[in-house]
Amino acid sequence: MSKRTVAALIAICTMLSFSGCDKLFKIYDTTSTSSEETSEQTSSYEFDIPEDTTGASDTSSDETTDPSDSSSLVTEGTSLVTTPKPLRKVTISDAYKKKYGENEYGFKASVRIPKISIAGISTKKLNKEILNYCKKKSGKYCSCKYSYYVANTYISLLITFSEEHDMSPCDFYRVYNISRTNGKKLSKKTMLKKLGISQKKFNSRVKKAITRMFKKSYGYSSKAESYIKQTYKDAIKTKMIKKAIPFVGANGKTNCYIKDLPSPGGAGQYDFYGEC
Predict the structure, then answer these.
(1) Is there a domain that residue 47 lies in?
(2) How far is it, in rounded angstroms, from Cα 13 to Cα 145?
(3) What's the angle, vertex CA 80, arms to CA 75 and CA 86, rounded to 5?
């Protein structure tokens, strides 16, 4: 009997817990080298295959990982091939649409409220929140419209409320950054991470955006009226800049949104957004 045959028999009886294995080892103690070879030859490779989450909803409240980095592992012999997971299809349509007749100010309001659908994900709660808020804020005297940008890992949604008269406070915005993988709202910190922008850099961009707006809208400069200078100082205070929320406009450019920015001359506060 050859050494290779004996080594194979020993390996088999060991796997079957055969009681006579110890005798075989004693009789053929010179086959240890062959046994080791056989053990190496019969070893199998084990890989951790990621769980397929297609169609399942993530229960976390915030998306912190980039799905584009995720992949399925497929074995081909002893090699690994990465296959990117397909992106979930996103559809944005009107959840509610209405046109109003001319009101006493000669203004015809138009309302369009968005509905976000992500394949395999329930967005019912999010859509209900958007619908209720927009219906409450819009109407005969206040129009509502929206724009959006869809990226690989997120959706940025900008809702604009506006009027064509000065009889009601209806010039403001609502921003949503939404995960494309779980349909939940993204935090400011996570959104900045996805955009590859540090908080410090974003704050600097926000300040520059406010400065540009003040120069264009109010003629801000070193020679400007004192009340404009004071309002500008209030607008770029740290507490105001920290309120800014990042989002991506329909043109694919990063923007910043600030609620209740001070207005010169005691004219109150208003919402502002601009490229950052």
Answers:
(1) no
(2) 75
(3) 85
Alpha helix locations (H) across the chain?
3-15, 21-27, 32-41, 124-137, 188-195, 199-218, 226-235, 238-241
Q: Which domain holds residue 9?
A: 3-41
pLDDT tens string 161-213: 998 666 556 789 999 999 999 999 999 999 999 999 999 999 999 999 999 99
> pLDDT tens digits for 35-64?
333 333 333 323 232 333 333 333 333 443
Residue whose tokens read 């194979």:
8
- The span from the CA of 256 to the CA of 268, in Å, is 20
Residue found under tokens 């999010």: 126
Distance of CA 204 to the CA centre of its chain: 22
Q: What tokens appear for 213 in the block?
A: 């707006």
71 lies in the same domain as 161:
yes
pLDDT digits (tens, 9 = 90+) for 106-136: 889 999 999 999 999 999 999 999 999 999 9
